[in-house]
Structures are given as structure tokens and as C-alpha cells.
Amino acid sequence: MMGKQEKYLKISEEIIKYVGGKENIQGVAHCATRLRLILDDNSKADMDKLDNVELVKGVFIVGDQLQIIFGAGLVNEVYEVFSKAVGIENMSLADVKSKSAEKQNFFQKGIKSLSDVFIDIMPAILAAALLMGLSGMLGQTGIFGEKSVVQMFPAVAGINRFVGIVSSSVFAILPLIVVYSATRRYGGRPVLGLVIGAVMLNSNLANAYSVAQGSVTPEIIKYSTSRISRRNYYCTYDGCCCCKL
Predict the structure, then answer these.
(1) For residues 85 and 17, what is the distance between their CA atoms, to the nearest angstrom?
(2) Could you confirm whether 31 is annotated as catalytic?
(3) Which of 2, 29, 134, 238 has its CA 20 to 30 Å from the CA of residue 124?
(4) Residue of 31, 235, 240, 242 marked active site
């Protein structure tokens, strides 16, 4: 009867064969359920044969990665044998993603860089949106009767108010969060991103929505390039060459 190691080695050899050989494999790592491969040429992979390999539960290509589904726990054991078989060990998932990004064109890299900005902050945005929806549902009349939940159970009014404050706070400082994440993604100092975001949220700046509605007149910083204004502002000598421009 074939042991685990022998079975995994046989699976590894079949995968190597169906992806075009070892020379076509640039990187390999795994996540919780999938073996992730970076191939030099994805067209060499025989997807139908890979899908029929023993213990494989699915095969697909996403973002220049060939992902083979094995399942939680099993993928760790298969990866240990497979990585040794191809001679690529100790490669992290981040390394594989980085290797995969090298194969992307300019447009794909641009889209990915923008998505990277929001990946880290998306949990906060989603949590705030869910809390905002919950707060609105508790305070909305007509959903569970003529009165809202808050009106029917005044004891939850304080909790609902707190939930509303928490959810709105995230969106109130959203520019700060986005700029902070962007400076981290593009190699800047995060503290500088916080400073830029703080400037954008400064109460002394005119509100963009109010300006668009015409209820506020923004103060505009002007720099005049006219000859008269330049002469009056800069010149103290009438024969200065800048006065003749």
C-alpha cells in the first residue's frame, strides 16, 4: 500500500509534468487551501489533466498564478513534497505575489497598485458600512412596525447612538486613512501621509460640497503673472530686466 510521502511525490510529479516541466515553474507557495504556482508560460499547463490529478479539488488561473485546490491541512503536506521536487523551497506567499506582479503589463500593475492601497483599509470600511446599516435599521420606522426599534426599546438608544458614532468616524477620517495607506504602498513615510491627510481634513479649508452648492465662497490663492503686478511686487529698481518682460 502506497504511503503518504509516495502518494504526494506521485502527485507532485504529475503536476510538474502537466504544467510543462520544472523549467516552466518560476515560483511556488501555498495559502490555506491552495498550491500556488508561477509559471513562465501559462499556456503550457494542461488544465484538464491537472484537474484530474488525485486529491486535486479544482484548478484555475488568477492574476498570473496557477492555483491548485487541495484543501486545508492537505495543501501543507503536498507543498512540502512538491517544493522539494521542483527545488524551490522556503518561498513565501508574498514572494509568489511579487513574482507574479513581474509578469503583469503596465495597465495591470497600475490597477494592482491602486487595489493594494485599499486592501489594508477595506476591513475598516466594510465594518463601518455594516455598523452604519445596523444603526440605520434600528432607528428607521416602518421596518418592524409603526415605531423604530429604538422607539420601542429606549434602552438600546444609547447603544445605537454609539454605533452610529463609531461608523461615521471611519468615513469622517477616510482621506487620512487612504493617504496613509497610499504612502505605505508607494514607499513614502506613513507619518507624511498622516500629515497630508490631516491637512485635507483641516476645518479651515472650505468644504467641497458646500463650495459645489454655492453656499460657501472659497478663498483662492492667486499668483499673477501680469507685467504690472510683477513689477509692483518684485521691482525696486526701474531699470530691472524683469520689468521689460
Answers:
(1) 12
(2) yes
(3) 29
(4) 31
